Model the fold of this input.
Amino acid sequence: MSTTYGKNIHISIYGGSHDSEIGIRATGLPRGFRFDPSELSAFLKRRAPGQNSLSTPRKEADIPEFLSGVEDDFRLTGDELHAVIRNTNQRSSDYSNLSFVPRPSHADFAARMKYGEGVDLRGGGHFSGRLTAPLCIVGGICLQYLAQRGIRIGAHLASVGGICDRLFDPVAVGGSDFEYLQLHADFPVLDEKAGEAMKHRIEEVRAEGDSIGAVVECAIVGLPAGLGEHMYDGVENRLAAILFGIPGVKGVEFGLGFGSAALRGSENNDPFTVENGAIRTRTNHAGGILGGMTTGMPVIFRAAMKPTPSIFREQDSVDMVSMTPVKLSIKGRHDPCIALRAVPVFEAAAAIAICDLLADNAPLTSV
Done:
């Protein structure tokens, strides 16, 4: 299975949703950098299940154990970092009736066709969003490292089921927005009224045994101009590669994205100007990236997440042995909107990608 990412920082994630542990191995992280474990724990808690009434009731502490690569004072040694999270609340019996009946919109059918009947699909196995927990360990460390270099990353729910939050100002997004979202991390939106409407919609679909999709918007500020490469090694490429590793992501756009297709060049172009002795653009339709390279403006992207495929409403499937149609009612504990807990995952993924890009020029070192 392809479970690795990175050009300079290499990460490899292993384990399954109902295994005894899930983990991550990483190389290329900044030797000597000391991270704050309490800050990392708070970050991991944002993604962890069972934190509020709008997420899955499965409760996992998601406490990382560092087996190598970290000193007692939480300083990175420069050797391979190996971290694990113990799964303590598996309920594999919820999946005992799914052995030969693929769940609609899950990886079950495709995985069984590729890997055979021995593939572990309990709780989604290695295809589960549970595997974003170890990703957030390294991503959380990278977020702290970037912050010390003046680079900040923040994300929020841009929309849930068509209910829209206020989008980031693509030119002026920054500290105040990120600080507000930190204070409202349990439901990260910029517009409180929009957030209440989103919560109502999520509760509504949950009561109907259904789920709903969403869009997450993420901003990266403080990047220098000229980071990245053209064509196949650009900033969009490197970000998209890790973002599409987040289960449930079905589309990513940068800047205006698909909206730019409806504009003229005179409307879409970002005019250059000089502010405080620095070259900037008056608008930021490009999302901070031109020719695969950063412009020094905020990098803005949005990712569309599909509705949670595990729903309690009866669905059509097939018995893969008898090749006959069957009705499937899924049991288990599931999020009615997976994007809510995925917001910090996008921040973590973006942080890893940016650190990987920064290391193109020289190995990362402690600030």
Observations:
- The chain has a mean pLDDT of 92.
- DSSP finds eight helices and 16 strands in the chain.
- The chain has one domain: 4-358.
- Helices lie at 37-47, 108-115, 132-148, 175-183, 192-207, 235-243, 265-268, 339-358.
